[in-house]
Amino acid sequence: MIWRAALLTLVLAAAAAASVQPWLDTEFGMAFVGYNDIGVPGDTGTRFSLMDLDPDPALFVRIRPGITIGRHSLSVLVAPLRIEAGGVLESPVSFAGTVFPAGAPVDATYRFDSYRLSWMYDVYRREDLVLAAGASAKIRDAAITLSSAPLELSAAKTNTGFVPLLTASADYRVSPELKLRVHAAGLAGPVGRAEDVFAGVVWTPSDITSLRAGYRFVEGGADVDEVYNFTMIHYASLGATVRL
Fold first, then answer.
1. Radius of gyration, CA atoms only, the chain
2. Beta strand residue intervals within 16-175, DSSP E
3. How many other C-beta atoms are found inside a 10 Å radius of the C-beta of residue 201?
4. How far apart are CA 99 and CA 94, in angstroms?
5. Which domains does the chain have, with CATH numbers?
6. CB neighbour list of residue 203: distance below 8 Å, 6 or more residues apart
7. What distance lies between CA 207 and its chain's CA centroid?
8. What span, in angstroms and rounded, lies between the C-alpha atoms of 214 and 223?
9. How open is the CA angle 104-106-112, to the nearest 5 degrees?
10. In this predicted model, what pLDDT tens digit does every residue of 113-170 receive, in sequence order?
11. Among 66, 88, 144, 179, who pairs with 75 as Cys (CB 3.0-4.6 Å)?
12. Can you give the pTM of this predicted structure?
């Protein structure tokens, strides 16, 4: 229902707006695991930390095309993420029906691909300050895999689901070319939560291009019978927006 209302609002805004502004936003950098606690199944699997397997920093990219119509914007985010880790288990781990014994060399892969349709509305505009709010429909496509080649053991857990998010942002202009930006999306419920927060600096060298640098974190997870997983990822981020 919220997306029907958002699309109807955009159509009405398009009829009244002088122009529609398409744009493409890209973001890239390095991702670092803050914590990643896992149990599969969530009620009977062994709780362990991916940090014990020394996860590697990972390159990441996020691509977000969108359009702006007056105070409204509509965008689609594609944000894949893959974390690799490897080490020796200090104690036995029962994961997805497979028991990995203590001392076993284990390779782990944590995949968390995120896709979002987002609508934002500028609720407050001033020459030096813009505040916006909206909502996102997120599809989460995740997988956790453990394998031990010497022992010929392998197990995986995949999970795909829908997550609604509330969104808000603030842009504060400190000079004609420079502004500070905070953007947040998140929601919490009885069995889980999700947050995605960015804070950084935006430099606009021309009317069609904006460049930015900052810090992002993505945190959240769920505690259900099927899976227990709570994760914090830190991002060192660079980005660019091009108005088409």
1. 21
2. 21-39, 48-49, 58-69, 72-79, 82-88, 93-95, 98-100, 105-126, 129-148, 153-173
3. 13
4. 4
5. 2-80+113-137+162-243 (2.40.128.90)
6. 177, 178, 210, 211, 212
7. 28
8. 31
9. 150
10. 999 999 999 999 999 999 999 999 999 999 999 999 999 999 999 999 999 999 999 9
11. 66
12. 0.90
Q: What is the dihedral of CA 3, 186, 38, 61, to 10 degrees?
A: 80
Give residue-wise pLDDT tens across range 68-89: 999 999 999 999 999 999 999 9
- CA dist., res. 53 & res. 160, Å (int): 25
Q: Rounded CA gap, 237 and 215, in Å? A: 6
The backbone region for 242, taken as left when phi is positive above 0, alpha when psi lies in -120 to 50, beta otherwise, is beta
Q: CA 244 to CA 242: how far, in whole Å? A: 6
